[in-house]
Design goal:
- It comes from Daubentonia madagascariensis (Aye-aye).
- This is Gamma-secretase-activating protein isoform b.
- InterPro entries: GSAP_C_dom (IPR028010), GSAP_fam (IPR026172).
- Strands 10, 11, 12, 13 and 14 form a five-stranded antiparallel beta sheet that branches. This protein has a five-stranded mixed beta sheet with strand order 18-17-16-15-19, with no helix packed on it. Strands 1-30-29-28 form a four-stranded antiparallel beta sheet.
- It is elongated.
- The chain is an alpha+beta fold.
- The protein contains 24 helices and 30 strands.
């Protein structure tokens, strides 16, 4: 299925065997069912109560006498610990333990079974206790009221030493939240007791709220109160020094006036009365370390035919509401939708009906989100028991007592990618599979730095490349190669600096159809909101400046005029750094001859992109070190070029091509044509985005083009810019091909399309009258471009010429005189093997050919 639930904890496996062992020990000691009195059939009473910030899990069970026992499972040491026994037959509502495991808070209610006597104080419904458990000592009653109470200890961010004061939240069904400040002291060695237990100070944190959620990992309290029937979401951040701040207030376009009372993540959300009060209402807040803040909401299901849910992307400043059909009229909805936090995604699903994977980093592009409905495999395999999404990717199945890490199933998504036919699903799943494995460790696995633990991820990434290379023509709504290059390069650097999200392109598709200043998460959220308020589209990097500057440099080269050599040298040095960075991180030898030739035009493009992207990021990434940005740019551009190399390597390996392909004197095969087609699609994709290609790409592309295309098609590709002639490719063509009529026609057609400077060099490699004619024409043009007619002797010395043909004799004499007067320039240009005599010989040969002699 699309979701992969990795078990972190299981009551049946991690706790029950320990309880049974404790009972055996207790019976052997003659205790007769003492501190851990549990029978074989007592598993039904064993349930999870709470998961604390440090990962410790609090659970409860009842012995055969009805006594309530509290236990703790340490997920780091994988050890169980008995905390406390309450010797009355009561039902536990909530429980929490402080970080030092010295204080236990619990709230209990009267057991509802008939015939039970009232174990609580007269007139009270819920008893809230604070117990000293290091060792078990005093018990203080915090509340004895006729309404439910939930408890939660605050956990400081620094846990290296015991704190003199603990802080406990009490959440009342009467719609208020209090914070108790509990000072502790040590007596008689390690004995921890409450100091001044008769008067505990407290603060009123919130009141008149209808919904609240606890974020155990980040120590935040979210709650909603109603002001003039408007739902206002508020957030309080707690700190280790007992201070707290109201971080923001945000109005939500939802109605909670008749929804009752709802708590999220204050322990296990399974109290029967709470379910009754808010049946099928689902509301939760999700955040991640990139500064995203999403509110997911689904109202009570009023129809058997459809269900509605909304996602408020607070960090992007907008929301989206979805309505999903529930299939046949006979289908019955027994519970509300489930929302799960999957880091860069939010999963929304209703088992048996639909599955929606929402991209919360880029919610503006619906095509980056996946929606599945109907009776397909993905929906059929979704977990049917309700899952409670805790902080991060942790989810709790209260019914089974299992704690999972919810991850996207990369293997399943990759299979789905191969099988789906819809463009929208291809794009959504492509972005999903590229993002769900990102981070430094997986980045290393993507061919950058391989170790023993990354082979599986590397193989997975190569399968994505294989899918791209085999489906370049299968997507009609977008360019698959463009999308893959941009998205993969984006995700390769995104985890390093979250603000890159706003400065680098994340998709080739632009459209398809108030906070305090704090550090950490709040700083990132504020940055997101500021971008929404003030950013303009041009803040996102594009290669328009690179395109203009590159064309200027190429034009200067053609005209022989170029700006300072220091400027050009700096650009080429940037390219060398990128290629060195790329080669250093790629440990496997390449099958294809890429990155091995100069190709100054591509190196200029690479160097310019390095320079412009560095300037762009330095302008907008405030507070990031220059060296880090420089390395980020090198990694980003190296990644772009490495992806192209990998696509080509995958195709090359699939068709089993060898080095003899690089010679011109052979005909192309079906395998060569397949590689040529992939290279043409890559060239089209990079041209429109003006992205650099690995040096050697155009040479190989030209060789395959000569092999695979008829002459008229080949020339059309060259004239339209789909084939770019490099000096390396043309030099090899001149050497490999003979002088048959067909080869001569090809060579002349190629030479005629070369830039003048390269054309002159290539003609000298072809020993043929046609090349001599071209060389002679160029030589004459260069000599006579500033020629001024001078008075001359009408008599010509005929003995110095091989043929008595006055027009030619007169012309050669002019050339000889001009050469004599321009010896300095002539020698500097290195054309000492081309002179008037060479021109005369070429002219005679050409005339002879024209006359058919």
């Amino acid at each position: 299925m699309a979701l992969r639930l990795v078990a972190d904890f299981d009551l049946r496996k991690d706790v029950l065997p320990w309880l049974r062992a404790q009972r055996v020990v207790s019976e052997a000691a003659g205790a007769g069912g003492g501190g851990t009195d549990v029978l074989e059939n007592d598993y039904e009473s064993l349930r999870v109560l709470n998961v604390e910030r440090n990962g410790n899990i609090i659970y409860t069970y009842k012995g055969d006498k009805g006594n309530v026992f509290f236990g703790l499972y340490d997920r780091q040491t994988r050890q169980n610990e008995h905390l406390y026994t309450f010797e009355k037959d009561l039902q536990v509502v909530s429980c929490s333990i402080n970080s030092e495991r010295t204080l236990l808070a619990a709230s209990l209610v009267q057991n509802t079974k008939e015939g039970r006597r009232n174990e609580l104080q007269p007139g009270s419904k819920c008893l809230t206790l604070l117990v000293e458990i290091h060792p078990v000592n005093n018990v203080k009653v915090l509340k004895a009221v006729d309404s439910y109470i939930w408890v939660q200890f605050l956990y400081p961010y620094v846990e290296s030493h015991a704190l003199p004061e603990n802080h406990l939240l009490l959440i009342s069904e009467e719609k208020y939240i209090e914070q108790y400040h509990i000072q502790v002291t040590q007596e008689d060695g390690n004995r921890v007791v409450i100091k001044n237990s008769g008067r505990l100070s407290k603060d009123r944190i919130a009141e008149d709220f209808v919904w609240a959620q606890w974020d155990m990992s980040e120590q935040r309290l979210y709650y909603i109160d109603l002001k003039k029937s408007r739902s206002i979401l508020k957030c309080i951040q707690f700190y280790a020094d007992e201070s707290f701040n109201l971080m923001f207030e945000a109005p939500l376009d939802i109605s909670l006036s008749d929804s009752g009372f709802k708590l999220v993540n204050f322990g296990c959300d399974c109290h029967p009365d709470q379910k009754k009060l808010s049946k099928h209402l689902t509301l939760c807040v999700f955040t991640n370390n990139t500064g995203s803040l999403c509110v997911c909401y689904s109202p009570k299901c009023a129809s058997l035919e459809q269900i509605t849910y909304s996602v408020f992307h607070i960090h992007k400043g907008h929301s989206k509401t979805f309505t999903a059909a529930l299939g046949s009229a006979g289908s019955h909805v027994t519970k509300g939708v489930t929302f799960l936090n999957l880091d860069y995604y939010v999963a929304v699903y209703l088992p048996g009906h639909f599955f929606h994977l929402l991209n919360i980093q880029h919610p503006d592009l619906i095509c980056h989100s996946l929606f599945q409905t109907g009776n397909n495999e993905m929906i059929a395999m979704l977990p049917h028991s309700p899952l409670q999404s805790l902080s991060g990717c942790l989810v709790l199945d209260c019914c089974s007592g299992k704690l999972y890490r919810a991850l996207l199933n990369q293997s399943y998504l990759l299979r789905f990618l191969w099988n789906t036919c819809l463009d929208c699903e291809k794009m959504a799943v492509l972005h999903c599979v590229l993002s769900c494995g990102q981070g430094p460790r997986v980045l290393e696995a993507q061919g950058w730095r391989v170790d023993l633990n990354t082979n599986r991820v590397l193989s997975y990434f190569l399968k994505i490349i294989q899918w791209v290379s085999e489906n370049v023509s299968a997507c009609h709504s977008f360019d698959l190669i463009q999308e893959f290059l941009i998205a993969s390069s984006y995700w390769s650097v995104y985890p390093e600096t979250s603000n890159v999200d706003k400065l680098l392109p994340y998709s080739s598709v632009l459209t398809w159809n108030t906070v305090h200043r704090f550090k950490g998460y709040w700083e990132k959220l504020n940055s997101n909101l500021e971008y929404v308020k003030y950013a303009k589209p041009h803040l996102q990097y594009n290669n328009s400046v690179v395109r203009r500057e590159w064309h200027n440099l190429i034009s200067e080269e053609k005209t022989g005029k170029r700006r300072s050599m220091a400027y050009v040298r700096n650009i080429l040095d940037n390219a060398i750094k990128v290629i060195s960075n790329l080669e250093a991180r790629n440990l496997e030898p390449r099958l294809m001859p890429l990155l091995q030739e100069e190709d100054n035009h591509q190196r200029l493009l690479v160097g310019l992109m390095v320079s412009e992207l560095q300037d762009h990021l330095l302008r907008h990434l405030q507070g990031v070190e220059k060296k880090k940005i420089e390395q980020m740019v090198l990694d980003y551009i190296s990644k772009l070029m490495d992806l192209i190399c990998r696509i080509l390597e995958t195709t090359w390996r699939k068709h089993n091509l060898h080095s003899w392909v690089l010679h011109f004197n052979r005909h192309g095969s079906a395998a060569e044509f397949a590689v040529f087609h992939i290279m043409t699609r890559i060239l089209e994709a990079t041209n429109s985005l003006f992205l650099p290609l690995p040096p050697g790409f155009h040479t190989l592309h030209t060789i395959l083009g000569v092999h695979c295309l008829p002459l008229h098609n080949l020339l059309h590709y060259i004239d339209s810019g789909l084939l770019l002639l490099t000096e390396t490719a043309v030099t090899r063509l001149m050497k490999d091909l003979d002088n048959t009529e067909k080869s001569e026609k090809l060579k002349f057609s190629i030479i005629a399309r070369l830039p003048p400077l390269i054309g002159q060099k290539i003609c000298r490699l072809w020993d043929h009258p046609m090349s001599s004619n071209i060389i002679s024409r160029n030589h004459v043009t260069r000599l006579l471009q500033n020629y001024k007619k001078q008075p001359r002797n009408s008599m010509i010395d005929k003995s110095s010429f091989r043929v008595e043909f006055l027009p030619l004799n007169y012309f050669i004499e002019i050339l000889t005189d001009t050469e004599s007067s321009n010896q300095a320039l002539y020698a500097f240009e290195g054309h000492d093997n081309v002179d008037a005599e060479f021109v005369e010989e070429a002219a005679l040969k050409h005339t002879t050919m024209l006359l058919g002699l």
